[in-house]
Amino acid sequence: MIVEWDPARPRKKITGIIKEVLSSGGIIAYPTDTVYGMGCDLFNIKAIRKLYLAKRLDEKRALSVICRDFKDISNYAVMSDSAFELLKGCLPGPYTFVLKARKIMPKLLMTEKKEVGIRIPDHPVPVALAGLIERPIINTSARISGEEFLSDPREIEKSFKDTVDVVIDGGIMISSPSSVIRLLNDTIEVLREGKGSLKKILP
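The chain above was modelled as a monomer; its predicted structure follows.
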């Protein structure tokens, strides 16, 4: 099902469908400020495993999460004062920050070092999705592992017809992934240079 959903002017029926899908362990595809993402409830392990399977992705490959705000981040990841200042200057924005995960984070989402990727996209839809269920949602790109990013909602629906319950139409997007930055012990490590400018990150 492809739907149009504007969090600033949400239609009650569509909002209800989206919330029910997320709350009941369904999977949603949605636009972000980088590429189309696919996600589900952070704590629904069955749905997360379904995502891994659909993307043909090894479960050792950690997925990131979308948070609503910095309070959300602090609940699920550890930020030093300097890390907080750096994130504050970059988020919302096209960055994924890899931080030390708190114990509340499902182990399936952590790296072997118990880290987790955190995003607050500069796009109203994914942040509002997390707001609907009042906790972070899973974030992974809408593509089969090793293949091109899918930029058309109709392609996403066709490719993941047995996995994705709802596709939120954000139009055809020019896909450019987020920059991925690891922040541990106040050390900055660039894991992937993407859409987010590194001028905000590197001294």
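The domain at 2-200 is CATH 3.90.870.10 (DHBP synthase).
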